[in-house]
Specification:
Layout lengths: L17 H4 L5 H8 L2 H7 L15 H13 L4 H10 L1 H6 L14 H29 L9 E11 L6 H18 L11 H14 L3 H24 L8 H18 L17 E3 L9 E11 L5 E7 L5 H16 L5 E4 L12 E4 L8 H8 L4 H10 L5 E2 L3 H44 L5
Parallel strand pairs: 1-5, 1-7, 5-6
Antiparallel strand pairs: 1-3, 2-3, 3-4
Helix pairs in contact: 2-15, 4-15, 7-15, 8-9, 8-10, 8-11, 9-10, 10-11
Protein name: Transposase InsH N-terminal domain-containing protein
GO molecular function: DNA binding; transposase activity
Pfam family, one: DUF772
Length: 444
Amino acid sequence: MKPHPRTDEQDDLLRPRLTEMIDLRHALAKLEKLIDWEFFETEWASFFPATTGRPATSPRLVAGLLYLQHAYRLSDDAVVARWVENPYYQHFTGETFFQHRPPVDPSCLTRWRQRIGEEGAEWLLTKTIEAGVTSGAVEDCSLARIAVDTTVMEKNIAHPTDARLYEKARRQLVALAHEGEITLRQNYNRLAPRLAMQIGRYAHARQFKRMRKALKKLKGYTGRILRDIRRQLEKIPGGAFRERALDTLVLVSRLLHQNPKGHGKIYALHEPEVDCISKGKARKRYEFGTKVSLATTIDEGFVVGMRALPGNPYDGHTLPEALEQVAILTGRTPDLAVVDRGYRGHGVSTTKVLISGTRRGLTPKLKTLLRRRSAIEPEIGHMKTDGRLSRCPLKGTFGDAVFAVLCGCGHNIRKILAHLRALLSLILAALCAAATDRIRPANC
């Protein structure tokens, strides 16, 4: 059911309003006035077509929690717990009086992310861009000059090894057989864990011949259980469990038949869409996750576009899609985009694209803008250290798409808050200087 609209609460003699408890010069209190909350109240109501049932949570509350979560690098549980303790958080999400209990269960944020999807997350990003322009954190003319780059958003998985994957697949097959009341010839519950542990010891001791022999035996254990279940598939009745069993068997079969240097490998059984991406980093040769394209303004480093790119596509092929998203979110097509050499062969004609290393036909102004291309790199670093871009905890490609855009929202919120704090400091410094000049003696 659609959420009920909020009504203005009357004054309470026993409870002071939040506006009387907090400092309205605080950056969060100022940011609360810059965001168009009515947009979420009207647009997000379309995600609830049902006319019966319990009314949904207030969209403003959910939007505010998502902003705070990614601005301060908090989990679902942490942002709800901190909301109870922080009156500025409560004021930011639209509360009138201080609340002593959590507004929602943390799992509510999961269901809201599933409802709004990538489109709803892009609306959140659009409102941060509008708030940035209104606050002065980003100039309106800066939206026409952007820098585009890609990075890797790692998935929340363990480092993949063959021994770990084979042992985990075996345990899943044994649990599946137990749930389907299938009698196995042997489940290897005693031998397989010991063998998986021994493989790690052989690898640590650099005894690779023994390691490969033990790994082959562990793979055989998993294959035997797989074939044993296949022979007894007719015992599983049709329904949801049979579909889940068939999906598991197909996934494990892919795991057992994949080649070391093949494509489409499985690196995690619970996240089979994870890609192995090499960005040429000396400290981390391979990263397991999904590629993310992001576009920022050249001058301020403000995020104006962000999108997950499953399948590890070539950077040059992703540029038209990135520019299209920027045009949708900002309402204007960029005039200039600066990129690195990985975008050669992009095929974009509507926007002027400058590739790093270009020397011919550049005016002094374009040379200056091209040198600013590398400014996007520290922005990516801040999004991974100060934000949550370093690791995605959401499931599947759908979770990657939503999480990437929300990370961009958090980065913009931090930019706006820093700008508001700096602006307040300048105002206070000017007032102090004026007061000092007023009380200073004339002969000084």
